[in-house]
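wait is this the right file?? whatever heres the structure
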């Protein structure tokens, strides 16, 4: 197991299209190469040090969900993280091992597709103020982390910097069109229900999650990462109690540590101490192993 996180990546001779908070995207001509680094962000800031193997967890967990769902939900994947690399990428095999995915050049929709099954995060904050989440009226008397009567679709705008902004479904429909908005809503809810049932059998509650969709040759595809600790809120079933903040498999552990510091949540971000890095890595690996039934 590597103890050195992959923070930055350049592939000489292969054009880089984008460097996000976690992913590097390279142009392979008629395809794209997605590479998940070990960077970790919190409060919209990327930490100066990363979490070893985090990128492998994100990529191979997405592969796992694509394998389970591609018979009924088309996705953008062309080659798995464990598939042989094309010749142009062979010189970089060591750096790419287990953390890269070759995908179709889909055009991402301009909305995030969020599904919430439990009352947490920004949803809990809004509920306390107005008894709604993204304008959706909910029953009175719900507690922090309460399971909702049924999962709800709460789209958001995409933000290159700063926070995504929750929007009503009508606004999402105005952005991507009514038919596409209805399709991604229905697919998101179906995918969440499928994943929630699988995860619960493996001891994990998926409280909420974010999907992305894109268009390719006039077809709607599931794209980017899927149901990972970065895009989802994972809670252990055996420790769940409504009415409080939950123990989490995701980077909430990092956020909680940062909240304890006298840091104003603007760059530069503080380095994470070794024990926080180790505990965060253990959470990511534990989530992967529980969900997939295998060790990374």
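ok assuming it is, sequence goes like this
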């Amino acid at each position: 197991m590597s103890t050195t996180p992959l923070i930055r990546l350049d592939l000489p001779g292969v054009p880089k299209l984008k460097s996000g908070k976690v992913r590097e995207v390279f142009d392979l001509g008629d395809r794209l190469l997605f590479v998940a680094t070990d960077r970790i962000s919190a409060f919209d800031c990327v930490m100066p040090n990363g979490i070893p193997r985090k990128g492998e967890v994100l990529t191979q967990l997405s592969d796992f969900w694509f394998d389970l769902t591609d018979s009924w939900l088309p996705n953008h994947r062309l080659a798995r993280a464990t598939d042989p690399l094309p010749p142009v990428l062979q010189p970089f095999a060591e750096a790419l091992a287990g953390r890269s995915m070759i995908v179709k050049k889909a055009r991402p929709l301009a909305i995030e597709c969020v599904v919430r099954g439990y009352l947490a995060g920004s949803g809990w904050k809004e509920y306390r103020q107005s008894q709604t989440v993204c304008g959706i009226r909910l029953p009175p008397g719900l507690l922090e982390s309460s399971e909702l009567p049924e999962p709800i679709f709460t789209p958001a705008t995409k933000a290159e910097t700063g926070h995504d902004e929750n929007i009503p479904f009508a606004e999402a429909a105005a952005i991507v069109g009514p038919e596409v908005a209805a399709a991604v809503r229905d697919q998101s809810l179906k995918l969440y229900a499928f994943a929630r049932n699988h995860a619960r059998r493996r001891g994990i509650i998926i409280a909420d999650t974010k999907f992305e969709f894109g268009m390719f040759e006039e077809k709607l595809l599931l794209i980017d990462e899927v149901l990972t600790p970065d895009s989802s809120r994972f809670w252990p079933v055996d420790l769940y109690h409504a009415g409080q903040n939950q123990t989490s498999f995701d980077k909430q552990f990092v956020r909680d540590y940062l909240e304890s510091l006298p840091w104003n949540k603007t760059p530069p971000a503080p380095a994470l101490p070794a024990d926080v890095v180790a505990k965060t890595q253990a959470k990511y690996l534990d989530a992967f192993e529980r969900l997939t039934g295998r060790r990374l």
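The mean pLDDT is 95. so i think its the right one actually
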